Amino acid sequence: MIGRIWLNLQILFFVNLFFTIVVFSKSLYVYSWDPVNTTLTLDGGSHKLLPNITSAFGIALDELNGHLYIADNASNNLGNSYPVNNVPIYPYADSPQLAGDEFWIDIYVGDVIDPVSHLYGTSFLLDWDTDWVEHVTQGPDPHVEKGDFLGLPDEVDARGWWHDEPDTIAAAVTRLFTDRTAYGSGIVLRVLFKSRRETPHNTEVCFRISEVTANDSAWNPIYLTPREFCLTIIHPPGIRPNPFTPNDDGYNDYVEFDLPELREDGGVITIFDLWGRKVRELHNEINWYGRDDDGNALQPGSYLYIVKNKGKIIAKGVLGLAR
User: Is-contact 189 173, C-beta < 8 A?
Assistant: First the structure.
């Protein structure tokens, strides 16, 4: 941090940002420095009017937390704090997601309004707020993949590992070569998750990023602002999974006849083997666990089903049972 008084200006330099105030005014000027092209650009093309300030007198910088403080001459108060950088880092995925499916959470840095400059690497914690969702492992570690924002796959190293807190992983991604850095916005990392098939319909799951560090190729810090993202897990109408595997391992142990008519009015589900013999009949139930009417586990193979609601056939087809 460098601070100097030049006439009626006070200037601070921080990483690739210049902050300037006009003393005894409400004007703050923020400039971005591009060391590659050696250009200085005024952010937004104009000065910013400082809220809650009557007469700016001095500026100070909290480099650890990335906050700029403005002293007010009228009140001798240094309590007005402003983020140094609003460049976001945030998780994102398509929403809604289907219960029981795998999906990627993409970690973005920057956006159209607040792009990042000179990004070389970043690390962070990613947590989520429900046990209905779990990350997918690749060997002993969480399954992560490199995004394309920092460079080609052979130019980037990405890793994920367990954290002491439950439902939390730590991750880091960095370039391997210092020949260039990233500008703009994009995906730096992807983390694979899966929701449980038993997840209740319309369950909201929120993902949060914390303890963020980021740097340029000279290891100067870049401040990123974490954002939260939430998605919804749903159960669209259907009969799934097919095939199913009723082996009591907690995954695909039953087939669900998730049809609106059954949920609203109940009905009858009849299961037949390929010889046309009835093996199971369910009344006002929507799950079949691969057992006959006596509770015996049925052999792997194909089975026919007919679903009736108020005496009318609403669905029929073939199920695959595997063990």
Answer: yes
pTM of this prediction? 0.59
Is the pLDDT higher at 226 or at 11?
226
Q: Which residue has the tokens 């060391």?
A: 35
* CA distances (Å), origin 95, targets 16, 153, 249, 260: 36, 27, 28, 22
pLDDT category at 2 given cuts 50, 70, 90 is very low
With tokens 């330099």, the residue in question is 13
Closest-CA residue to 181 (of 219, 211, 223, 213) = 219
Note the pLDDT of residue 4: 38
Mean pLDDT of 271-277: 96
Peptide bond between residue 243 and the one before it cis (omega within 30 degrees of 0): yes
Where does a domain end: 83, 107, 138?
83
Sheet holding 255-258, edge to edge: 238-240, 255-258, 287-288
Q: 234, 254, 284: which is the final residue of a domain?
A: 234
Beta bridge pairs of residue 67: 62, 83
pLDDT at 7: 41
When divided into structural domains, the chain yields a total of 3
- Tell me the residue type at 86: N
Residue 211: give the domain boundaries.
Answer: 88-234
230 and 243 both lie in a single domain: no
